[in-house]
Every structure is written in C-alpha cells, then in structure tokens.
Specification:
CATH architecture of chain A: Orthogonal Bundle
Distance between the termini of chain A: 50 Å
Largest sheet of chain A: none
Oligomer: heterodimer
CATH topology of chain A: Helix Hairpins
Strand content of chain A: under 5%
Radius of gyration of chain B: 37 Å
Helix content of chain B: over 70%
Strand order of the largest sheet of chain B: 1-2
Helix content of chain A: 55-70%
Order of helices and strands of chain A: HHH
Chain lengths: ~110, ~775
C-alpha cells in the first residue's frame, strides 16, 4: 500500500510541476495545490499506513497509527490553504491590473 | 601586547565622535598619541640582550586559531617602523589635511591600518596573520580611495585591491598547505619542521602560492602596476602605507619564511630574479616619470625589488643588508614623500616640468630633500645611511652561494651587473628629483600658487626622518647591535657573527661598483636631454597597465554576458533551472551513495480494492488537469483530487485530517469559483515541442525522484520512531485523548500560534488586495 501511495504522490508531483511550468496564472496555482497534496501523502506514508487505530486514546486499544505525521500535515493543510487563497487573489488582481494572466507578458519592458 | 595591537582599532571607535569638534581641534592631534604610545612601549624592548617574547590569547582554540603574538628581532624592527613612522605621518597629516576634509573617515582608516599592520608582523599563527594581511589591503583600498570623487582615485583603489587580494588568496592557499603538511598553525613550529615540508613534495606549490602573496603586496614585477596608481592617496598615506610599511609586508613574509625556503634552490632563482628585474625595470621607469610622486612610487618599487633580491640571495651578509636597508629606506623615502607633499601643498603642482628653482623659496625643504635624495642615490658620504646599505647590497651580489643548478649559477653571474645597471638609474632619478625641483630656471608663471616655505609643523616630521638618515650615517653601528642584529638573526633562525658596519672598506669590488654607478650616473644625468627620446620609446606600447585594463574589462564584459544569458526575467526559466539542478544532484548523490540499493518489500500495509479505486480516480484527475482547457472543468477536477485525499485520510485512520481537508477543500473550491469569474479563460497550450519535452522531463523527473526517495526512506530503518513519546504522554502531559490535537495545541503550541499568525497575515493581505485601490475605486 505504501508504495502505491508513494507512486500516487510522484504522479501528483509530476502533474504539479508540469502545471507550474505553464504560462497562465490559474494553471500555476492549480500546480501548487497539487504539489501540497503530493507532499502531504509523502509525509503521511513516512509514518507507515494502517498500523492500528486512529490516534485517539482508548483503554481497550494498544496499537495506534503514527500521530506525528498527522499533526504535521494538519498544520500544512491550513498553511497551504492560506497560500492558495492569497495566490488566487493576487493573480486575480494582477490579471486585472495588467490585462493579462500570462507570465511571459508580465516580465517587464526590458525583456519585450 | 594585545593591547598595543588593538589600541588603534579601539580608539578608531572614538574617532567619529572626536571628529565632530574638528573645527576647534584637528582630529589628528588626538590620534597622534596612539602610535606614539605604541612606539614608546615597543622601544622598551630594544637592547643588546633582547630575546623573543610570546603572548598568547585564546580566540578559536578548537580550530587552532589563536591570537599568538610573537615578538622577535624582525617583528621588533617592523613594529618600531610602523609605530614610529606612523607617529610622524599622523603629525604631518595634521598640517597636510585641511579641516574641511573628512577627517573622521581618514583617521579611522589609518588606525585600522595600524592595527592590521601590527597584527601582520606580530602574529605567529598563519591564519591570524592572513586575517590581518587582508585587513591591510582593505584599509589601503579605503585610503587610496579617500578622495573618492576623483575617477583616478577610485581606479587606483580598485586596482590595488584586486591585485593584493588576489595575492592574499593565493597566499592563503600556501598557508593552508603548510598547516596541513605540518599539522600546526604556528610559524615557529613550521620552521622547526623544515624537513617535513621539504620532503612533502608540495614545496614548489607552497613556494609559488606564498611568493605570489608577497610579490603582489610588495609590488614586485609584474604586479607592481598598482603602486603608481595608489599615489592618488593623500601624501601622508603614500609615505606611510605605500612606502614605509604596508608594501614591506611582502618582504616581511619572505623574511619570515626564509628558513623554510632557503634550502630550496628555486627560492633563490625566483626571488632573486624577480627582485633584480623589479629593481632594474622600476628604476628605469622612474626616470621617465614627470610626477614627483610617480618618481617616488617607482623608486619605492625598485628599492623593494632590491630588498627582495637580497632576501633571495639568502646569505648572511645579504640578509643583514636587507634588514639594514628596510630601516634606511623608511627614513629617506618617508622624508622624500613628505617633501613631495610639501611641494604639492605650497606650489599647487607635482609636475616636475613646471617646477624649478625652488631653492630660494623653500631652503629648508631643499636641504631635507638634498639629504634624502643623495642618500637614496647611494653617494659615498659618511653621513648618508643609504650608502652603507647600498654598498652592502653590492657586496652581497659578489658573494653569492655556489650553485649546482645551471640557471642559478648563470643568475649568480648576471646579478652584480644587473644590480649596477639598475642602480645607475636610481642615481639618475635621485639627482633629477633634487636638481629638477630646486635648481634651474624659475617657472613661477606655470605654478598655480606662489611658492613659499612650508609651516614649521609640516617640516618637523621630515626633519626627524632626515635626522635619522644622518645619525645612522654617522654612527651606523648605533642601531646595529640592539636592533638589526636581532632582526637578521630572527630571519635566518641562527646566531651568525655580524661585522660592524664601516664607511671605508678599501677598494673592494663593492666600492668599485659604487664608483661606476656614480660616474655613469653623473654622465647620464648631465646628458639626460639626449636620452629623453629613448626614455619615451621604451617600453612604448608594451604596457602592463593595458594588459591589466584589458583583463578587467573583458571579465566585466563576459560576466555580464553570462549573467544576462540566464537572468532573463522569466520565472519559468528560473524554476526549470532549479528543478533540473535538484533532479540531477539528488539522483547523482543517491546513486553514488547507494541510497536506492536496499529496497525492501516487507513491512507493507495490505491493499484493498477501495483504495485502488480512489488512487486510480486521483491519478486520472491529476493527469486531466494538464489537458483540460476549460477553467471551470479544471477547478472541479482539482477538487476531485482534494476530496480524494480526504477519503484517503479516512482510510488511513486520520479522522482529524479528513475533516480538515474536507472543510478546506470545500472553502477552496468556493474561492476558486469566486475568482473564476474574474480570471481570463484558459488558452490551449501552444508551446513548441522542445518546451513540451523539457517540461515533461522536469515534471516526470521530479515525480520519479519523489517516489524513489520516498521508497528508499520507507525501506530504511536508520532511525527509531519518536511517536511513541507522544502516544505515552498525551494524556499525562497534555490531558487530552486526541493525540493529534494534543501535539498541535500543547506539545507544539508555539508552532500552531505562528501558523495562526501566518493565516492572519494572509487574510490581511487578501483583504487589502481586494479593497485597497490606487484610485480609491473599490469594485
């Protein structure tokens, strides 16, 4: 199972990078979203999968899944949410001000 | 001793405050007491029964880098020169620099230099020596560029910096080699291990590295070109740094390492050859100069070449002569620089073609210059110290060691002739300096100012130096036993006998050489008009300066080209370069270190049909994001991936994650759809095939890398899990049953606090992006 998830993470990374290397702002943002999904899966897998009950203490249970990656991912989800929404608003404003959402056209005059 | 070394630097901290009242009291008046105090402190060490003193202060003991100050005869000579000439120069600068100049800056740089130079000659630790060495380069750079509004000053400062720092770095290479071979950072211990160094096989490399440092610093051919340009500095600086002290740091370095190198034949060949060539070339070039300081600059270079050559000879008489000449050169050249400064100050020009007949206007300066120039020329008179060391130099050239090497023995044959040849020009420019300025027709109309004698305060420093010239000339053995003998012994690391210096040796070869120099010199000087065309023709276009300018210009040009080739302003290109680097380096390291070798397929969780289904849907959705050209569809497909992740979290027993992801994904979708209305429609990807392939390569490369590193990490069992701690203490320390929550709000509470802060900042930024407008028209 772990290796399947890692391959899934790899595919998410690959599609993310491909999107980030595009010119349009929306694609780039989607790329960053996929990138964080992939990273979360990698972190989760590092604590091994399906090795016990959910990490909520119960006297009848002795075996729990690793809680540490979950804590890290929880922080990461919230942070990536912040980043995504900021990027979204930023690109919306940039597109409005410059009348383009193409990265190559936003390079400034000396490169045109 | 550490206080003496660091005193100038500490006092420099006060200088900016003191310089605020410069209109009432010249800042130099305060500063002059610092070198004077240091001079008096070190003067107390002088004496016949002087023996070396060592003071050690820990700095970085774990790296063997300590402030290890070792005062032996050689260091004593140098610290006395640094502090003594320093006192005179600061005193002179009080009258030379007008109050309206940036005195604060000037004295801070000068004091910084003093500490650096004292550190260079006192450090026994090679790395501390190197640190101080570079500090002298930096302060020299700042002082040359003191009048930074002048283009020539900036040029000269940069030139000196580039050349001396290049040499300094090369020297560092040599020092590192030495310390690795000997296993010590102390110069004394290195000298004790000469055999180890000589037998190590690295001797040629060490020699080249260290000599490059010494030659650049002491302005030896062909690195001498920075010194004439350094003359843009205020004259006190030229007298101090670029004549008496800093440029002798290279000499000091060679002298310090002499016991290690002297056994090696190529040391004699390289140092003697470079020294003699410098002597001849620079004294010839000095004759061509029209600027007084230009003459003195080339004269300094040639005298440094002479001292360097003597150290290269390595014989006892040569080493003693070198030490003697270091002292003598500082006295007569220091005074001549000050005289040149006085002439510049009182007439407004340093161009020797405009000067002449100043004897009647400036009788005192003329008298001082007479002693200085005649001493420099080596005229045999019993009250000029220059003659003694010059004659010792000639004597040394005739008493070279026997050599088996054919190059070395040829060089030994040629050296006496080259020495005489170079000294003839020394004689000519010395005479030219004196007679050209002070005698001959008066050209008052050409002068910007009406000349008159300098104020007495300005004359005191050169008077003291000329007094030194005469005293050493009359009683050459006065400084011999108490100072020079110790210095010479420190260089060779042996206690050889030193004959007393006498004026009349009889008609020995050295005296005959002096007679030739004086005779031919007088003829050349009297007929100099006839020679002027030759002086102009050679070296003509073959200029080292042009080579330097070309190297600097081309370096600028090509580095600009290279930088512009990749700094195009395209973020996509930067991203591609970064990714390619990550892929190539990580794969290389992983393969080279065998990171992918031990992949184990044991210890894996079982796979269920539902899991596979979710994963397949996610893969499909992720790949679709690349091909979809409708923005609504793109957003929804991305949502599928996000919701897929939250279902995976459920499968993997992470209820908190699943919940959070679900909420976040829903809100994100809403946001995307809100922004969707405002964003332009997606276009088809109309990129070239090569771009597509590059992107594909980078994307697949990164994906494969992540998967493989993840698998390799999963297979390794290098570290035990640290999660048990949280499971065990969640209730006892955090008082909560939900372990993940306890970790977040309790164990790593500060982390979460900052996370909230980040969100808050993002929220503020989003709000201002939407609401704040330049024209206050929020839509």
């Amino acid at each position: 199972m772990e290796y399947i998830i890692l391959i899934l993470a790899g595919i998410l990374f690959a599609t993310a990078i491909y999107n980030i290397l595009q010119k349009q702002l929306l694609r780039i943002i989607i790329g960053t979203v996929l990138l964080s999904h992939g990273a979360h899966l990698v972190i989760l897998t590092m604590g091994k999968l399906k090795r016990g009950n959910p990490p909520i203490l119960d006297e009848s249970v002795t075996n729990y899944t690793d809680p540490l990656p979950q804590a890290l991912i929880l922080t990461s989800i919230v942070i990536s949410f912040g980043i995504t929404s900021l990027l979204l608003v930023l690109s919306y404003r940039t597109a409005k001000e410059n009348n383009t959402d193409n990265m190559e056209e936003m390079r400034g005059e000396s490169n045109e | 001793m550490i206080f003496a070394v660091l005193l100038p630097l500490v006092f420099a901290l006060l200088v900016p405050t003191i310089s605020k009242i410069k209109y009432k009291v010249h800042t130099g008046i305060f500063v002059v007491f610092i070198p004077l105090g240091i001079f008096l402190y070190f003067l107390s060490f002088i004496g016949k029964d002087f023996s070396a003193v060592r003071h050690t202060y820990n700095w970085i003991p774990s790296l063997n880098i300590n402030l290890d100050f070792y005062l032996d005869g050689l260091s004593l000579l140098f610290v006395l020169l640094i502090s003594g000439i320093g006192t005179l120069v600061v005193f002179y600068s009080i009258y030379y620099l007008h109050i309206s100049e940036k005195l604060g800056h000037f004295y801070v740089y000068l004091l910084m230099f003093m500490t650096a130079m004292l550190g260079v000659v006192l450090s026994d630790n090679v790395f501390v020596l190197y640190t101080f060495w570079e500090l002298t380069s930096i302060s020299s750079f700042l002082l040359i560029g003191f009048w930074h509004h002048r283009e020539r000053s900036r040029y000269g400062a940069q030139k000196s910096m580039l050349i001396t720092i290049f040499g300094g770095l090369s020297m560092l290479g040599g020092l590192v080699l030495l310390s690795v071979i000997t296993g010590t950072t102390s110069i004394r211990s290195m000298i004790d291990q000469v055999d180890v160094i000589v037998n190590s096989g690295y001797m040629p490399l060490i020699l080249v590295f260290i000599l490059l440092g010494a030659f650049t610093k002491s302005a030896q051919f062909p690195f001498h070109i920075w010194l004439p340009d350094a003359m843009e500095a205020p004259t006190p600086v030229s007298a101090y740094l670029h004549s008496a002290t800093m440029v002798k740091a290279g000499i000091y370095l060679v002298a310090r390492f002499l016991p290690i190198f002297v056994v090696y034949e190529w040391f004699f060949i390289s140092v003697s050859l470079v020294g003699i060539v410098t002597l001849v070339w620079a004294s010839y070039m000095a004759v061509r100069q029209t600027d007084l300081k230009g003459i003195l600059a080339f004269s300094t270079i040639s005298q440094l070449g002479m001292i360097m050559a003597m150290l290269g000879f390595g014989t006892e008489v040569a080493v003693f002569a070198a030490v003697f000449h270091i002292l003598n050169h500082a006295t007569f050249k220091g005074s001549l620089f000050m005289i040149a400064g006085i002439i510049d100050h009182e007439t407004g020009t340093r161009d020797i073609r405009k000067l002449g007949g100043l004897l009647t206007f400036m009788p005192i300066s003329a008298t001082l210059a007479l002693f200085g120039t005649f001493s420099m020329a080596g005229i045999p008179l019993p009250f000029l110290n220059g003659f003694y060391s010059k004659e010792l130099f000639f004597k040394a050239t005739t008493l070279l060691n026997e050599n088996s090497n054919s190059i070395a023995s040829f060089l030994s044959e040629a050296i006496p002739y080259l020495a005489v040849f170079g000294s003839i020009f020394t004689f000519v420019y010395s005479m030219y300096f004196f007679f050209g300025v002070f005698t001959g027709p008066k050209k008052l109309k050409l002068l910007p100012k009406k000349p008159h004698e300098a104020p007495i305060g300005m004359l005191i420093s050169p008077i003291v130096l000329v007094f030194g010239v005469i005293i050493i000339g009359l009683f050459p053995n006065l400084v011999n036993g108490s100072l020079l003998t110790h210095a010479a012994h420190a260089i060779t690391n042996s206690n050889f006998e030193i004959e007393p210096v006498v004026f009349w040796h009889g008609l020995i070869p050295a005296f005959k050489m002096t007679l030739v120099v004086v005779g031919v010199g007088i003829i050349l000087f009297l007929t100099r008009k006839k020679w002027s065309n030759i002086y102009k023709a050679i070296p003509g276009k073959l200029s080292l300066n042009k080579t330097y300018d070309m190297i600097i210009g081309k370096t600028d040009e090509y580095s600009a080209k290279i930088t512009n080739s990749y700094m195009t302003g395209s973020l996509k290109l930067y991203m591609s370069i970064i990714l390619a680097t990550i892929i190539i380096f990580t794969f290389t390291v992983m393969f080279a270190s065998g990171g992918f070798k031990n992949i184990s397929f044991g210890d894996l969780a079982e796979v269920e049909i539902v899991d596979i289904a979710i994963v397949l849907i996610m893969v499909l959705a992720a790949i679709c994001t690349i091909f979809v050209n409708n923005k609504l569809a793109l957003i929804i497909i991305t949502g599928i991936v996000g919701f897929g992740i939250s279902i995976l979290f459920v499968v993997f027993r992470a209820p908190d994650l699943a919940l959070t992801q679900l909420v976040v994904e829903t809100v994100s979708m809403a946001l995307f759809l809100l922004a969707y209305y405002h964003l332009p429609e997606l276009q088809k990807r109309n990129e070239s095939v090569s771009t597509s392939i590059t992107n594909l390569f980078l994307a697949v490369g990164t994906g494969v890398l992540i998967t493989m590193v993840g698998i390799a990490a999963h297979s390794s069992d290098w570290f035990k899990t640290i999660s048990d701690y949280f499971v065990e203490t969640s209730y006892s320390l955090g008082g909560g049953n939900n372990i993940v929550n306890v970790i977040l709000v309790d164990m790593r509470g500060l982390d979460t606090l900052f996370e909230i802060t980040v969100l808050g900042i993002a929220a503020l930024a989003i709000y201002s992006l939407i609401k704040v407008r330049k024209d206050k028209e929020a839509d």
